Structures are given as structure tokens and as C-alpha cells.
Amino acid sequence: MVDIQEYLADRRQVVERGLKQYMLPATGDFSVHVQAMRYSLFVGGKRVRPILCLAAAGCVSDDPEIDTVLMPAACALECIHTYSLIHDDLPAMDDDDLRRGQPTCHKRFGEAEAILAGDGLLTYGFELLSNTGLPGPDGATRLRLVACLAGAAGSLGMVGGQFLDIDSEDKDVAFERLQAIHRAKTGALITAAVVMGGMGAGADSRQLEALTAYGTAVGLAFQIVDDLLDVTASTEQLGKTAGSDAEHGKATYPAFFGIEKTRTLAQEAVDKACSALASFDDRAEPLRALAQYIYSRTC
Predict the structure, then answer these.
(1) Residue 107's domain is classified under what CATH number?
(2) What is the pTM of this model?
(3) Residue 164 is part of which domain span?
(4) Which residue, 45, 91, 141, 183, could crosslink 137 as a Cys pair with Cβ 3.0–4.6 Å?
């Protein structure tokens, strides 16, 4: 049985050490630019995506060095996730003043500087992942990781999902559009985190299929819960402005189904995620516990 709070606290420390090891220092001519990148990267966060990556690797491989091997990939995921938050908060997007309980990057450094900080984190994530001077799997596998992350972060993944989200504001959209938004905007990068962990640890095709199914279901659960928390939690609890989805006229699960049905659908997604791991042994317990933790945020 995994004590999820203890597990998360330990894993966050591991990821934080990796980020501090690999992140650019704020020195020289580019110091202010890198400071803006570091500000958003280190201002806080649950580190869910790198933790999922390392947990997926751990359920495939018993190599005691697997965290070291995949840490650049885990850090790349967090860099790209953080870039997406910086851009999502911009006035042209969701126009938020708070992120993780602190002023958003554009409020702290300026709008142009925030755009460039996001650009910097996006490209630096791929530099970390592709740098053969850093720990990582063999060259062919590393290339597969790059392709996986690029697809998840790009125009048919996270970026495309952000576009669909904005394009659907204040519109009467079909439920199929809401599903497409959630799969791309949030689900794609979470699924990629899980798949990259398995891929980097040498998972076979059957294991990758199971991890993909798990990641897809967990990604959906995560966004459903985020939709729910935007309605039920306070700004202080969220660390960002509560109620912004309704204010922007966004398509969300509570808007379609109400709060109680949304909770049920979140639990169903978590159950589906755990079922996808039926072929794995006890090494997959952290992934199962992480899925349940995602749902527990609704309570």
C-alpha cells in the first residue's frame, strides 16, 4: 500500500533536485530572461507530469538508476508544462493574475518578457531531452521520446487544445468538442509523461499499450477534476483565480453535467485508469495511487 502523501513529498524532492541540477543559471547577458523562466518553474507546483514519468518507468524497470536515466526527460516535461501555464495566463489567453498563489509571470516581469520566458522553457525542454551529453536512454529511444513529447505538446496536442478551448468560449458547443479539448489541452501531455516513462525504461508493446490507456484515463480525470475545482474551490485553495471558467464562458464538465455527475465521471475515469494496469505487478502501485489521488482533490 502506497502512502500517497509521503510518496508525493519524496518524489517532488527528487524532481526539484533534478530541475535545480539541469535548469539554466540566471547569469550573464541573459540573466533577466532566465530569471523569468526560473521564476515560473520554481514558484511551486505539484510536479505531476515528471512524477508520472518516473513512476511509469519504475513499474517497467527495476534498474536502481532509472530515475537518473530519465530525469532530463522528466524535467523536460515540467519545462514544457510550465511554458504552457505562462502563456495560458497571458492577457490574450485567460488573463490571470495568479498562478500557484503568486503573481503570474507577465505580472511579475511584463507581457513580452513572459512570452519569451515561455518560449525559452519550451525550447529548453527539447534541449534537455535531446542532449546526448546528459543521462538518457540510447539514441533511437531518445529520438522516440522527442517525437512523443513534440506530438503531445504541438498543434494536435496541447497547443491545439488551447486553441479549441479559446475558440469555444461563449459558444454552445457539443460534448464531443469538450472531449476533444480535454484530450488535447491537458490529456495529451499527461499521457505523454506516462508513455515516455515506459518507453525510456524499455517497455514492450503490450506494456506501452497499457500505459497509454492509463495515461489517457488519468489525463481525462485530471481535467475533469480541474473543471470541478474551478467551481467548488476558493482562489486561496487553487492558487489561481477561482470561477474563471464560467467568467470566460468555457466549456466544462460541470457546465454540461452539474457537480455531482461530474464527480461520478471523474471517479469512472480513475477506475478505468487503474483497470488499465491489471497486467502490472506491485511496482505499478504508485501509478494506481496517483490516479486515486487525482480524484481525492474533489473532496
Answers:
(1) 1.10.600.10
(2) 0.95
(3) 4-296
(4) 141
